[in-house]
Structure formats: structure tokens, C-alpha cells
């Protein structure tokens, strides 16, 4: 995707890449922002199956919404920052929930930026030494951070406000 996608206030964005759980297809957002005013648990959902990854520029949702990015259906999938220091996940108003799952790291070489108030992140069966690196504007509660696998990397969570971590699981 190269450029902005604007969805109506109540609309959702769902992308399922390579739904047979095989192959190396990826979801790549070269520039721009995918935005919706939707404030539900299904506002934006991106799933990459097979061994592909999700390279993200900007996703923006309504107050209290959830953004879900899943790149762990098979093996090797990472979630990467494709816009440098700009915010990857923007939540209107008081914030929302960010759910990230991958097998090859989350923001591994360049931290993903967010304005979420709640995070759930995991790299399970991590076989590529992928780190989890997130930078949040404002206070954040990490309900669960999981880093499991034969080649796990580091976990780095920074915020401009307080950080509350409920559960951390690692191996």
C-alpha cells in the first residue's frame, strides 16, 4: 500500500494475506496511513500467514478501538517499522488497545511507535532472534508480554508516561 486509505467513521479495515498459511507473501505499507474513526475491537486487523511479515507505516483508529496485527500463523513472520520515527499506531482520544503477535520479532531493528493505553504483545516460537521494541506516547499498561523460542531477543518498552506490566513470559 502506497498512500492513504481513509475508511468511514464506522468502517473497519481487515487484511488477510495468503490465507493458506503457506508461502512468503507479506503485507507492506510503503507510506501513508490507514485510518478509520471506528472505535470497536475490530477497527483494524491485519493477518499475514506463511513466512511473510508485516511492514507498517501508519494505522489510525477511533477512541477506545483495537488494532490487531498477527504475523505468527506459521514461521518467521515479523512486524516491522516502515516509517522511521513517525508513529505507527495512533489512537484518538484517550487511547485504545494494540495487539501484536509475531514469530520473527516486533519492531526488532527499529522500535514501533504507539499512542495505545493497553498493549498485548507476543513472539512465540521465535526462531530468528527477533526483539520486541515498542515506544509509547503516554501511559501504557502491558497486559501481557511474551517472548518464547529457541532464539529470543530483548524486550524493550519505553513510554513518556507510566508503564504498568501485568505479565511477562519468556524462555
SSE inventory with pairings:
Elements: E1 5-7, E2 13-17, E3 27-28, E4 33-36, E5 44-48, E6 54-56, E7 58-61, E8 66-71, E9 79-81, E10 89-91, E11 97-102, E12 112-114, E13 118-123, E14 132-136, E15 140-147, E16 155-159, E17 163-165, E18 168-170
Parallel strand pairs: 1-4, 2-5, 3-6, 4-7, 5-8, 6-9, 7-10, 8-11, 11-13, 12-14, 13-15, 14-16, 15-17, 15-18
Summarize the structure.
With 171 residues, the chain is mainly β. Helix content is 0%, strand content 45%.
Helicity, in percent?
A: under 10%
What is the straight-line distance between the termini? 36 Å
Q: Provide the β-strand percentage band.
A: over 45%
Provide the residue-averaged pLDDT. 85
Helix-strand string: EEEEEEEEEEEEEEEEEE
Return the structural class. mainly beta
Low-confidence runs of at least 5 consecutive residues: none
Calculate Rg over CA atoms. 15 Å
**Quantity of strands, as a count:** 18
Number of helices: 0
Based on Cα principal axes, name the global outline.
Answer: globular
**Main pleated sheet:** 8 strands, parallel
Q: Which features characterize this protein?
A:
single chain; 171 residues; mainly beta; eight-stranded parallel beta sheet; four-stranded parallel beta sheet; 18 strands; 45% strand; globular
Task: Explain how this protein is built.
With 171 residues, the protein is mainly beta. Helix content is 0%, strand content 45%. It contains no helices and 18 strands. The chain has strands at 5-7, 13-17, 27-28, 33-36, 44-48, 54-56, 58-61, 66-71, 79-81, 89-91, 97-102, 112-114, 118-123, 132-136, 140-147, 155-159, 163-165, 168-170. Strands 2, 5, 8, 11, 13, 15, 17 and 18 form an eight-stranded parallel beta sheet that branches. It has a four-stranded parallel beta sheet with strand order 1-4-7-10, with no helix packed on it. The protein has a three-stranded parallel beta sheet with strand order 3-6-9, with no helix packed on it.
Amino acid at each position: 500500500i502506497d498512500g492513504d486509505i481513509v475508511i468511514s467513521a464506522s468502517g473497519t479495515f481487515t487484511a488477510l494475506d495468503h490465507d493458506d498459511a503457506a508461502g512468503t507473501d507479506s503485507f507492506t505499507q510503503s507510506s501513508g496511513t490507514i485510518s478509520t474513526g471506528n472505535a470497536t475491537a475490530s477497527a483494524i486487523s491485519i493477518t499475514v500467514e506463511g513466512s511473510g511479515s508485516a511492514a507498517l507505516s501508519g494505522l489510525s483508529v477511533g477512541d477506545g478501538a483495537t488494532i490487531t496485527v498477527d504475523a505468527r500463523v506459521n514461521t518467521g513472520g515479523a512486524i516491522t517499522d516502515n516509517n522511521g520515527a513517525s508513529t505507527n499506531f495512533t489512537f484518538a482520544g484517550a487511547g485504545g488497545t494494540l495487539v501484536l503477535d509475531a514469530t520473527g520479532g516486533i519492531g526488532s531493528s527499529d522500535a514501533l511507535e504507539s499512542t495505545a493505553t493497553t498493549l498485548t504483545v507476543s513472539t512465540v516460537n521465535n526462531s530468528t532472534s527477533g526483539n520486541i521494541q515498542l515506544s509509547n506516547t503516554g501511559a501504557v499498561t502491558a497486559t501481557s508480554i511474551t517472548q518464547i523460542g529457541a532464539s529470543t531477543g530483548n524486550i524493550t518498552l519505553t513510554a513518556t508516561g507510566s508503564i504498568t506490566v501485568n505479565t511477562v513470559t519468556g524462555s
